[in-house]
Amino acid sequence: MDARGTAPVGALPNVVIIGAMKCGTTSLHRYLDLHPDVAMSRRKELNFFVGCADGELDWARGNWWRGPAWYATQFDATAAVRGEASPGYTSPSHPEVAGRLAALIPDARLVYAVRDPVDRAVSQYSHHRREGAETREPEEALLDPGSQYVARGRYLERLSPFLSAGLGDRVTVVAQEQLRDRPRPTMRRLFSCLGIDDDYWSPAMEERRNTAPEQPGDLSGRVRDRLREAFRDDAQRLRDVTGEDFPEWSV
């Protein structure tokens, strides 16, 4: 129920892509929506579980204040699987998300998109440079311990609140490299986890989304080495927890 005690109408989602930023969430949202048994939200990033009870009319700051009834109206109630993709849900800036999600939709499947964490950090840096939000040189920005370039790529740390909330058995991890190099078996595995026809395939699932140039110029080997060291322990723990090897990663 929302803050006014109103029971939600419509249908809440039963799959949520929770992150991470610059890891193929746009492609995953699109590929899932192509399946005849799936209806993803028209707007990709609903950011519902982010924000406070009395919010501002600023989508990026979150929509928690709108209440579950509003959230339910964003989904097709006739679809067997319905969902959204908000990579900000695993942002270190939003520790409240996991508890809220577990309380409202405890049975939902969660999809966690990941990629080589060094490449992810470089991609996020390039994204912010293009937007004008980042003016520092790559070394200063990427190695800044107070920035999110490293924090967002320590995937198990970002996933831990969801595990602590009892959602561990609901999480499917999908590596961007798998989606890029082996799209059909990767989507087949995901469809199977969602309990829908895993034989379905569309050629459009081989299309890549949001593929803007990602290199911030000449990134020195020393910077890459320091980034790899910053990610190494977390990447190994992610391998231990998921049983995935992530052989394409540099970490």
From TrEMBL:
SUPFAM superfamilies per record: P-loop containing nucleoside triphosphate hydrolases
Superkingdom classification of source: Bacteria
Gene3D superfamilies given in the database record: P-loop containing nucleotide triphosphate hydrolases (3.40.50.300)
Coiled-coil ranges (or none): none
Keyword hit for Transferase: yes
InterPro entries assigned: NST/OST (IPR037359), P-loop_NTPase (IPR027417)
Record key words, sorted: Transferase
One Gene Ontology MF term: sulfotransferase activity
Protein name, as recorded: Sulfotransferase family protein
